[in-house]
Every structure is written in C-alpha cells, then in structure tokens.
Amino acid sequence: MIKTAIILGVTGQDGSHLAELLLEKKYKVIGVKRRSSTNTLCRLDKVVVNPDFSIVEGDVIDPSSINYLVNSYQPDELFNLSAQSHVHTSFQQPAYTFQVNTVGVLNILEAVRNYSPQTKVYQASTSELWGSNYTIAQDGSSNKYQDEDTHFAPNSPYAIAKLASHHLVRLYRDAYNLFACSGILHNHCGPRRGEEFVTRKITKWIGQFKYWKDNHPDAYFIFDKNDIYIKGRTQTNVSLEFPKLRLGNIDAVRDWSHAKDMVRGMWMMLQQEKPKDYVLCSGIGHSVREFLDISFSYIGIKDWSEYVVIDPCLYRPCEVEFLQGKYNLAKKELGWEPEISFKELVKEMVDYDIKISTIVVDKKIV
Ligand code: GDR
Known about the structure:
Radius of gyration: 22 Å
CATH architecture of the domain at 4-193 and 256-284 and 319-339: 3-Layer(aba) Sandwich
Strand content: 15-25%
CATH topology of the domain at 4-193 and 256-284 and 319-339: Rossmann fold
Bound molecules: guanosine-5'-diphosphate-rhamnose
Largest sheet: 7 strands, parallel
C-alpha cells in the first residue's frame, strides 16, 4: 500500500533530505511551506520534479491551516520539522519561538487527535533540552554524555519551548493513545545546513576566502586596527580586502552528525510498533575549534587564528558548553547507526562551499 506523509518544514535541511528518502521509499509526500514572497524551495530541486511530491502552503501557528491539511490528506505519517531553530535568535524573539516551537506543536497534536488519530507523528526534539546537564559514565571511564535517561535542564527560550512540546508529545501519546514520538537529535549538518549555524558559517567563509585568494594571488595580508579585515596592499582596491571570520564561543563542544543519517533515524522511529523517544547522535563530541582545525586544513591552513575574530556579541546570554550523546537505545531497538563520519561530513561541506563560491566575493556580499 502506498503511504502518504506530510512534512512540515520541508524547505529546511532535514525536510529536504527526508522528502528525498520518503520518495525513494515510494511514499506520496506532501511538503508544507510557509507563505513567502521569496523563493524558499532551493533545497528541493531534486524532489519538486517528482510526481509523488507536492508542495502546499500552511503554517503551524495557524491551527485552521493545520486542521485543514491533516483532515484532507489523512496522512499515514506526519513529520514536524518546522521550528524557529536558531538558539541565539530565541533570546531575541522568545515569544515567536514559543509560538512556533510550542503552540505550533500543540496545534499539530490537536489536529491529529481530532481529524486523523491513526496518523503517526514525529516531533523534532533536540539535545538542547539537556542544557548544561550530562550523565557521568559509571564504568570507570568518567566519560560524560547525554542519553534518554539524562535529566533535562534547558537554558534558552528555544530549548524551553522545545521541552514543552517534548512533554506535549508524551502527554498526547499517554492521554489519547496517539502514535507520537520525539527524536532527541544532537546537532546535524551537511551542505544544506543554514548559513547562520556555526559549521556552515565556517565552511561558507572558507569557500569564499579560497575563491578570493585564488583570484588575487598578489594580495598579502595586513591587519587593520579593528582587526576586522584581512587586507591587501592597496586601501582603494576593495577586491584586495576580505573580512575575517567572526565567531562566538569556539570552545563549545557539539556532537555533529550528517543530516542524511538523522532523517533515516526519524523514519525508523515511525516504523516501530510502539511509539518511543530516541536519542540520535554520533556519540563523539568535537569543539568548534576542532571543526576549524579540520575545515581550514582542507585549504592548506594549519593556523587559522589569524583569520578568525572572536566577537563577544556572538556569545549567547547562557551558553551550552558540552553536548555529546549516546545512541545505544536507537542502535538496539531501531538498528540505527550513523554511517557518515565527522571528517567525511566536514570535507563534504568544505568541498561544496568551495564549489559554489562565486564572483559575489568580489562584490563583498559575504
Ligand atoms: P546549536 O547550533 O546552537 O548547537 O543548535 P549552532 O551551530 O548555532 O551553534 C553551535 C555552537 O557554536 C557556537 N558558536 C556559534 N554559533 C553560531 N550560530 N554562530 C557563530 O558565529 C558561533 N560561534 C560559536 C554556539 O555558541 C554553540 O555553542 C543547533 C540547531 O540546529 C538547533 O535547532 C538544534 O536543536 C541543535 O543544533 C541540536
């Protein structure tokens, strides 16, 4: 029987990879996007041409639109990947973050309960739920990690909104017998990662910097007073200036996986007989510094410190220093394991950004 799936948040990194996966599995896929006057379909090139894929407009903060979609399509599966997903932004836009990340989830669960209770629901939870908390291994190693038993201690509006929806999913599962589960996913990225997240911000800078440098072999670098620009030998020739990479807390440790591995795990969760929440991660933490080491080494730079400026404005009011997961439960019960290594992930991102870097660098649109 052909299955139908709704993907809320289809235009994002995970939504686009998930749409591709479900179409490979012969699903009919309805991708939901918010109305926008600009084109937000750039990640969906591969799927928009597929007759089993359709795109419709809707918004999780408008219950009538979600009720209508759930009622009309009666999907077998619904994946909620829509979110205000930027942690730093949530400190500046906390009410909006709660509207999308909490009230939006409530609207989805109510729509499913009222109009299509047989629909299986996947909710995107996050490692940010743990905040600064972790478990210490009792095997003598004293390793720190987070898994399904680690207590949540969220410390951003983003994480607190996500924790409320995590509990809503559990409540609707228990109270109304819905098949609803949350994937507690650690960081994940790839070439489709949004440019405002740290990994992509770094690889995009590297791609554009390499392009600029290759096209200005004569340029040499003088640092200006504010240490903002890497400058060439003439002040008047803007093409010989290149802005440094500005970053915040580069000592933060995150557990990065490839988004393709993660969407496979999301799908697996909905194929179980009983709904349950699972942690997905690589199991290995790396600092932003290590990401810089590896990514810069691909363009032959060993010491990146002269190209990077630490900007206090990019620190969050409350930092999460250490996130490193354990995926034992997902391995045991879903048979899920990540397939793409950290090094492969970084290389793919750097290669992609080198490939797409263009003349915009010369116009200083970086
Ligand atoms: P994160 O991802 O907050 O973990 O949330 P992000 O890439 O934004 O930050 C990771 C770490 O890098 C530090 N950092 C910077 N971050 C950004 N964005 N920009 C910078 O310039 C910068 N410099 C240092 C951050 O402080 C942080 O410690 C992501 C999102 O996808 C969430 O939606 C998701 O829930 C979690 O991952 C799992």
